[in-house]
Amino acid sequence: MKRLLSLALALLAGCAHSPIATPKAGAPSSAKAMQPGFMWGVATAGFQSEGGDRTSNWAAWEQAGKVAQPIGRAIDNWNRYKEDADLTASLGLGAYRLSLEWSRLEPSPGKHDAVAVQHYHDVLAALRQRGLEPIVTVSHWAYPAWLDEPDADGKRGWESERMQTALATHAAWLAKEYGPQIKWWLTLNEPNTLGPAAFVVGMHPPAKHDLLAYRKVMQHQIAAHKLAYDAIHANDADAQVSLCPIAINYPDTPGNGTEAVDPHLYLDEHEIYDQVAPHHADYVAFNYFHSLRLRDYVKVSKSWTWPVYPRGIYEVSKDLYARYHKPLMITENGMATFQGQARGDGWTREAFLVQHVAWLQKAMAEGVPVLGYMHWSIADNYEWGSHDPRFGLFSIDPNDLALKRVRTPAADVYQAIARAGGVSQDQLQRYPAPR
Ligand code: FCB
Asked: Which of 89-103, 112-126, 296-310 has the lowest mean pLDDT?
């Protein structure tokens, strides 16, 4: 066990990707590659925005004081979902990614909470009324705390095989209850972050350093996704189902070295999609933020220092389409500041948006089909233990009792991009990458 663990830590500390490739010839495109049906949207997650969660594993973690800062009311989206939907629609966007929080819907095993069930009906209706297509995550890292009770083998949470059938049973229930209102589904958010962050590096609950547990957790997540995929399809005829790993690998860098240690670590998006793309993904979704190598990513909780690399969204898109030949969806892309302050590297959210969308346009102009782009996030929210990282198109001061949403210049830029169906030459010149 010790050997495996030190191998894992060596893996996270020493290998991952070879150095980031310097940009090759080719500039981001300002061509209007996006077709009218393209989904411009934002991404959110329930635990980070709703507030008032008392029954999830993350709520238990937060209540036990294991986080840097208390969650408070998050951003009170539970009560202000219409306002946040209004803000999204006001930018001319057409999609809104959210999670329907499992712990609120099923706070104890098999017993659904009528208030929460109705709440999410209301949320989905509010989105639809504003022309926003919901993109629904079944479990965005949080799950009901009762799944952390030991199973017959004494295993908890994702270490327990029980999680596979639990997720599938819940997904079937969701599809029966909400199926007519939902087309786009994501079973799991970033399984390849949850695994390392929670079971190797000890950043997220249950904060273990246990490679054997980690391997099981990765296998359980992939198996759970497959079962949930089938369960959603069995109950929602029009469903389009996928999952969204974080994309951390580039086609023009050689393998990340993990295969020499263990072929079943599922650390990067290929290892996950190789398993699920053949029969269990209707589209290939991914989250993309930075050019960090895995070893650094899992250690860097300071997301405002994540290095910005817009070309990576192009590289990953080209690579994933070449491998799996399925339409793509960018389910998260965004940039943090520390409490809204200017970043040391000079990147602004306006430039981040313009440069990433432009590189995505280039991939599309070269024939990669992309269904949509979800910016993380419509507003600042609670970043898994801290209010310091700010990702919002609308800023929120967590100390403001009113939690007022304040429009930022990046909201104007995104609005212009969505209205025009892409980034213009003018925007590319106005918002260049900082030198
Ligand atoms: C992603 C998570 C999302 C958010 C962003 C900043 O890894 O999926 O919930 O925290 O990072």
From this structure: 296-310
